[in-house]
UniProtKB/TrEMBL annotation:
Cited PANTHER family: MAGNESIUM-CHELATASE SUBUNIT CHLD, MOXR FAMILY PROTEIN
Gene3D superfamilies in UniProt: Magnesium chelatase subunit I, C-Terminal domain, P-loop containing nucleotide triphosphate hydrolases
Keywords in alphabetical order: ATP-binding, Hydrolase, Nucleotide-binding
Name the UniProt record assigns to this protein: MoxR-like ATPase
Protein family (similarity comment): Belongs to the MoxR family.
Domain ATPase AAA-3: 55-188
InterPro entries registered for this protein in UniProt: ATPase_AAA-3, CbbQ/NirQ/NorQ/GpvN, ChlI/MoxR_AAA_lid, P-loop_NTPase
């Protein structure tokens, strides 16, 4: 079996580190399961996004535990967490901070920078699409370059730095669509659906009494960074690399397939392939495996691609959605 350049690293060391990381991840999953009922797929994808070192966008109607999931992850992963409630009147300075003028006892004046809540290891951007596009774009530099610029001065963000944003469906009143450039910064878009009856019964029984379960810290932020570096060292089979290339390139309007020609307006760029490479490794480790498979690519195709492509009017007329197109393109990997 042929592997990418990651396989040049000492395989025995990777195996030992992977075993320990898999054990830590299992403890993390157990802690999350004590306070989040149902939503197993959403929990898995969100944790995979963090293990891969990226940001995630959680989409769903209010009341599906999006905010609680983010708070739980911050506690369990030992991350310094801050929360911003996005509202229509939120300003960019409310996110990145601003300069204020100080005056000393001699009357001399100078500017002092006061950091905003973006200076956190885990930033919860709650209801991100309720703020104006100008305010949403204040996160662009932070999410991609891991620093912000204020008055021409660079200010580095803490490490690690992750943004977990929640979003209400766009058809709801008082929401704004996120700019395409910002959407591309999210490693995955994770959709939360209504829980099944057993999960909803557990919610009713466990969250309406006098005592509620609280998560405990499992690892420190430095340990999370070690796992993130390990994931980048994991070998990727050539078959997985080819599947990623085939899938991403087939989702572009100039690709040689019927959906591309008839339904796709614009498609994913190379950053989508990078996201799939990292997320397939993270998903493999999440499940206790040492290398990803093509099945990982198929499982992650929708959350990685759906916010990185758009369909044309012909697709709407035909009743075709983004998920339908991705599903068909994924089937072609067989």
């Amino acid at each position: 079996m042929n592997f990418t350049a990651a396989s040049k690293i000492d395989p025995d060391a990777v195996i030992r580190a992977a075993d320990q990381a898999a054990s830590d991840i299992n403890l993390i999953r157990q802690q999350i399961g004590q306070v989040i009922y149902g939503q197993e797929q959403a929990v898995e994808n969100t944790l995979v996004a963090l293990l891969a070192g990226g940001h995630a966008l959680l989409v769903g109607v209010p009341g599906l535990a999006k905010t609680r999931l983010v708070e739980t992850l911050g506690t369990v992963l030992g991350l310094d967490e801050k929360r911003i409630q996005f509202t229509p009147d939120l300003m960019p300075s409310d996110i990145i901070g601003s300069e204020v003028m100080d005056q000393d006892s001699d009357g001399r004046r100078s500017f002092r920078y006061i950091k905003g809540p973006v200076f956190a290891q885990l930033l919860m951007a709650d209801e991100i699409n309720r703020a104006s596009p100008r305010t949403q774009s204040a996160l662009l530099q932070a999410m991609q370059e891991y620093h912000v610029s204020v008055a021409g001065q660079r200010h580095d963000l803490p490490s690690p730095f992750h943004v977990l944003a929640t979003q209400n469906p766009l058809e709801q009143e008082g929401t704004y669509p996120l700019p395409e450039a910002q959407l591309d910064r999210f490693l995955m878009q994770i959709d939360l659906d209504y829980p099944d009856i057993d999960a909803e019964r557990a919610v009713l029984l466990n969250t309406t009494g006098t005592m509620q379960a609280r998560p405990a810290k499992v690892i420190e932020a430095t340990r999370l960074q070690e796992i993130q570096q390990l994931i980048r060292q994991m070998p990727v089979p050539e078959t997985v690399l080819e599947a990623i290339l085939k899938l991403v390139r087939s989702a572009r309007p100039d690709a040689d397939n019927d959906h591309a020609k008839n339904h796709i307006s614009w498609g994913p760029g190379p950053r989508a392939g990078q996201a799939l490479m990292l997320c397939t490794r993270a998903r493999a480790l999440y499940e206790g495996r040492l290398a990803p498979s093509v099945d990982d690519v198929k499982a992650l195709a929708e959350p990685v691609l759906q916010h990185r492509m758009a369909l044309n009017f012909a697709a709407r007329a035909d009743g075709v959605g983004v998920r339908d197109v991705i599903a068909k393109l994924t089937q072609a990997l067989n």
